[in-house]
Design a protein that fits this description.
Blueprint: H1 3-22, H2 27-40, H3 47-59, H4 66-78, H5 82-90, H6 103-116, H7 119-136, H8 141-152, H9 154-157, H10 162-171, H11 175-181, H12 183-203, H13 217-223, H14 228-242, H15 248-265, H16 271-305, H17 307-316, H18 322-337, H19 342-360, H20 364-379, H21 386-395, H22 399-422, H23 425-434
Helix pairs in contact: 1-2, 2-16, 3-16, 4-15, 4-16, 5-6, 5-7, 5-13, 6-7, 6-8, 6-12, 7-8, 7-21, 8-12, 8-21, 8-22, 10-19, 10-20, 11-23, 12-22, 14-15, 16-19, 17-19, 18-19, 18-20, 19-20, 20-22, 21-22
């Protein structure tokens, strides 16, 4: 096909996709329909056979077996008493830091994010406990809201992450390597968030309540005792990943078993909570699988038309440096994040963007973490940032107030992207240690 024809086909598909999304059609069905439209321009290709083969190959992927298990693990722990104990368990250790209990937002989201895999679930769970406590103790509401919006995104950066699994399957890279690559960037994000809270508190001492009464080390341990089983579960899951003792799917299975054990130990495991966790995991997994099926079919259809390669060649014709390419993609994804959720951004763009990334010499594992960080920005970007919706509902504040509160943490995510771009070894060191070949 000529360049003019490819541009026309691209325009038709883009208009159709935007129209379908604007009309409220599910993203999975929208992608399937656009795939059919693209295939119509390629006569002689059996559309039904391509769709059936693609759907089967996507659904039968062993890598995807980890997805429903990690989702179920998060659903089980979501229904335990972990959320009630989180604030009480972390608070005694943070009295010495400037900002004091506001750091619970960051650490609590980091802890729950490592077992949830979902940004919205992490934000909702910690906000439910932290917002009333912080308000009652006189902490600044804007910083409380902003830190919760920003720290809630750790649910998709700290492994295991649903978003990471989806990207790994879409980009055909190792799930374990993506998980390992997320550890140090997530630590950087947490340090930046806590650093901002500490600096803000030092600059605004009148807005920080006095320190609580000192507790002995034994009293602190007693308050934190109920967090020990979950902490041990997290360490066990990730130690087996890091040491190569188990695959991601096997770790997910052990995580589910451990979650059921913790739920039983905390007396939260009833037939009702068990069934609710199963149905919650089933609904989310089915939604993701539909999106992946639609994205896979559209990717194959686009491949037949030759549009991705032509677009990659067009971008390459500008002779952008690797840093310039990353800067352009960052701006593009930030703009997309104002209209799409993070999961949709990944499945919609990987087919076009990955050839450019490979041609520019970037590692696909590194790009996966870059993309997850950009998705985190989308979670706190109006008008469709999911974390903003969650906090708007739970705080009773309007969306503009919540968005304004989250702005400093949005820029800290931008800073993290800049750091891993300039120093990519931060992302790659753990995967390279675990897989030296």
């Amino acid at each position: 096909m000529g360049t003019v024809e490819l541009v026309e086909i691209s325009g038709i598909i883009l208009v159709a996709l935007l129209a379908l999304l604007a009309s409220g059609v599910w993203i999975g069905f929208s992608l399937l329909i656009c795939g059919f439209i693209a295939m119509l321009f390629m006569p002689g290709i059996p559309i039904g056979a391509v769709l059936a083969t693609n759907s089967w190959s996507n659904g039968a992927s062993w890598s995807l077996a980890a997805l429903p298990l990690f989702v179920w693990m998060g659903e089980i722990l979501f229904r335990t008493k972990l959320s009630e104990e989180m604030f009480r368990g972390l608070a005694p250790w943070l009295g010495w830091l400037p900002g004091r209990l506001m750091h619970v937002n960051v650490l609590g989201c980091g802890l729950f994010g490592s077992i949830s895999g979902s940004s919205a679930a992490t934000t909702a769970m910690i906000a439910k406990i932290a917002l009333p406590e912080l308000k009652k103790r006189g902490y600044d509401e804007m910083v409380s809201l902003g830190s919760l919006a920003g720290a809630g995104t750790l649910g998709i950066l700290i492994p295991p992450s649903i978003t990471m699994v989806v990207y790994a399957v879409a980009a055909n890279v190792s799930i374990i390597q993506i998980f390992l690559a997320g550890f140090l960037p997530s630590l950087i994000v947490m340090v930046l968030y806590c650093g901002y809270i500490a600096v803000w508190s030092l600059l605004n001492p009148d807005k920080t309540p006095p320190a609580p009464p000192k507790m002995s080390f034994k009293e602190k341990l007693k308050e934190s005792a109920n967090l020990i089983p979950v902490t041990l579960l997290i360490i066990l899951v990730f130690a087996t990943l890091l040491l190569g003792w188990a695959t991601a799917t096997e770790c997910a299975a052990w995580g589910v078993l451990g979650s059921l054990g913790i739920a039983a130990w905390s007396k939260s495991l009833t037939w009702k909570s068990f069934w609710e966790s199963v149905m919650g995991a089933t609904r989310l997994t089915c939604m993701i699988m539909l999106i992946l099926t639609g994205a896979g079919f559209m990717s194959i259809a686009m491949g037949y038309t030759g549009i991705p390669n032509a677009l990659a060649a067009w971008v390459d014709s500008f002779n952008l440096s690797p840093f310039a390419l990353i800067a352009v993609l960052t701006i593009m994804y930030i703009l997309l994040g104002a209209a799409l959720d993070g999961l949709s951004m990944i499945v919609l763009t990987t087919v076009v963007v990955l050839p450019m990334i490979q041609q520019a010499g970037f590692d696909l594992v590194w790009f996966g973490i870059f993309l997850v960080l950009i998705v985190e920005m989308a979670e706190v970007s109006p008008p469709v940032g999911f974390n903003l919706f969650v906090l708007q509902t739970m705080s009773g504040r309007d969306s503009l107030t919540v968005a304004k509160a989250s702005l400093p943490f949005f820029f800290l995510l931008v800073a993290t992207v800049a750091i891993i771009t300039v120093f990519p070894e931060i992302v790659m060191v753990l995967p390279q240690m675990a897989f030296p070949g």
